[in-house]
Structures are given as structure tokens and as C-alpha cells.
Amino acid sequence: MMPQQDMTAWLHRAMLGLPRVTARPDPHGGVEYQVGDIGLGHLHRQGRGQVDLDAGPQLADMVVRSGWAAPHGQGSPGRLTIDLTHPQGGTVALWLLCRNYRWASTA
Asked: The pTM is what?
């Protein structure tokens, strides 16, 4: 398994390698990935490394039941927090961020 710092760097490079994706600093730390004005997800670089994103209620439920993520606090249904120290955390985060990218690219 990749160390957390390497995982966040890998994920950051992967996201910025996608056409039209930008990363803007978030006031709470980390970066928010966007295509135009559409947010794809938020990478927290401090601490354990986490990604917060919207996956939609049905997909989020499946991801949580599989143990790959946790619901994001009191946020909207479908909002997830993915722990990058989890063995599949980086892969799941990239999968869901790319899913959001595909959706945003066609919006």
C-alpha cells in the first residue's frame, strides 16, 4: 500500500491530468477539483488524507455498504468521505472523481 502522502500526490496528479480539470484551494485546507463551475470533489491533504464528494444516494449507499467510504457527516444524501489510508481508498476515490468528471464534462 502507498503511504498517505504519496497517495494524495498520486490522486492530485491524476485529477490534473484530465482535460479542463482545475484545482482551487479550499478555505478549509486541501483542494477542490472542478470542471468549469462544477465541483468534482475535495481532497484534504492534512491528517490522514480524505476525499469528500457527491456520488448520488444509490451509489453512495452501495459504496458505504461495501466499506469503501463513510457518509459525510450531516451532509446531503449521497455525500461521501473516503479515507485514503483504507487499502482501496485511493482507487475508490479516483473512480468516483472520474465518474463525476464524466458527468460534469457532458453537462
From this structure: 0.90
